[in-house]
Amino acid sequence: MSDEKPDEKKVKLWDFPVRLFHWSLVAAIVTAWWTNRELMIDIHAIAGYTVLALVLFRIIWGFVGSSNARFASFIKGPKKVIGYALRIPRGSMADLTYAGHNPAGGWMVIVLLVLVAVQAVSGLFASEDTFLFFDGPLVAHVSSDLASTMNWIHHTNINLIYAMVGLHVFAALFYLVVKRENLIGAMITGARTVPAELAARFAQIRFASPIAGIAILAVCAVIVWAMVTVARG
């Protein structure tokens, strides 16, 4: 039996590589946060390398992936972002539903990608000689001043990540509770139920091969692993 109402239709929204990236990034960030302590610092580093591989994948997928996963489809100018934000309090689903990230959500994706990329890259050069006693794999290739700067960035930038993650979760809960749009469920199942008159928007999505996405992710993982391995000698 279908849960769809006669005037609603379930449509495919997110491809498997995007969903795999999203939840893998969540798991990696949580793992990095939990293991930021002396006895678990090696796991913390692995989580950081995982984040780096995932970000590298998402950048590539933002150019060659499914049409609604590409940066060109959801990076909008200030006018559209502000216009969308002003419609949120009174807008209907027809006003607010996009076949992908909405204008505000699209920029949240970009900001989060930049922040986690900065966190992962700074960790490669950071040096913890106080209580963690850990050196990033590339710290030997930079000056002590640069390593110190990277260490400061690593410790400061994480607070920005926490703030953006909190905002991201708040936005998802707002849409779920107030707007009755289950964006969280869509990122799990890849599908979303929308009014039938909006289904045509989603029919225009061109989905890329999930096998290609997994292959690109695997290559990104190998690149990061090789870089870390070679750097450590």
Automatic annotation (TrEMBL):
Subcellular localization, as worded in the UniProt entry: Cell membrane
InterPro entries, sorted: Cyt_b561_bac/Ni-Hgenase, Di-haem_cyt_TM, Hydrogenase_cytochrome
SUPFAM superfamilies: Transmembrane di-heme cytochromes
Pfam families found in the cross-reference section: Ni_hydr_CYTB (PF01292)
Principal location listed in the UniProt entry: membrane
Cytochrome b561 bacterial/Ni-hydrogenase domain residues: 14-190
Protein name (record): Cytochrome B6
Transmembrane domains' residue ranges: 20-36, 43-64, 104-125, 160-178, 207-228
Keywords recorded for this protein, A-Z: Cell membrane, Membrane, Transmembrane, Transmembrane helix
Topology class, membrane: Multi-pass membrane protein
Gene3D superfamilies, A to Z: Transmembrane di-heme cytochromes, Chain C (1.20.950.20)
